[in-house]
Amino acid sequence: MQKDNNLKEIYLAGGCFWGTEKYLDNISGIVQTDVGYANGNTEDPTYQEVCHNNTGHAETVHVIYDPKQIRLAFILTLYYDVIDPTSVNRQGGDTGAQYRTGIYYLDEVDLPIIQGSLQELQSHYEKPIAIEVQPLRNYYLAEEYHQKYLDKNPSGYCHIHREKFDQAKSAKDDVLI
């Protein structure tokens, strides 16, 4: 995709990236996604290394969105709806540091939006929110077979309930409508 200076980026780790990507792809205003490995300690890791070699990477979805169609705060609200924000290194049946939740940002102006959304989210939980928030240090594109995995494998494993995909299709950022 050609770089459009009017578009923004955010990186969201929400457990297995197959379902998280499929869910985010259904949201109007998100113009592109890809999956990869973020904020780890090794260069250009493979899926096998991320799963078995303690690379420190999180399975992450790179989200490119149009801020004229959808706000970051709304994207985060939808993201929170498909994760357990209090779980540490686990989403659904997937366990391990690569399945942690995280919000990795490029633009410092996004940080107050992220922090505000997390404060609002925390007000709904007694347990502490476990979503890490960090600047993006690194991101390596995952292997091709992981890209749009659930489109290629419609009956593939997913920790997100399928009805959430339909809900994402109809989600509208009412502030911008």
Any overview of this molecule?
With 177 residues, this protein is α+β, with helices and mostly antiparallel strands. It has a single domain (8-170), classed as Peptide methionine sulphoxide reductase MsrA (Peptide Methionine Sulfoxide Reductase, Chain A, 2-Layer Sandwich). 27% of the residues lie in helices and 23% in strands. It starts with 7 loop residues before the first strand and ends in a 7-residue tail after the last helix.
Specify the CATH architecture.
2-Layer Sandwich
Low-confidence stretches: none
Radius of gyration: 15 Å
Element-level helix/strand string: EHEHEHEEEHEEHH
Number of strands: 8
The structure class reads: alpha+beta
Coarse morphology:
globular
Let me know the largest β-sheet. 6 strands, mixed
In which range does the helix fraction lie?
25-40%
The H-level CATH homologous superfamily, spelled out, is: Peptide methionine sulphoxide reductase MsrA
Average pLDDT reading: 95
CATH topology name, in short, is: Peptide Methionine Sulfoxide Reductase, Chain A
Strand composition percent: 15-25%
Question: In CATH's first tier, which class applies?
Answer: Alpha Beta
**In whole angstroms, how far apart are the ends?**
26 Å
> For this entry, what is the oligomeric state of its chains?
single chain
> How many individual domains?
1
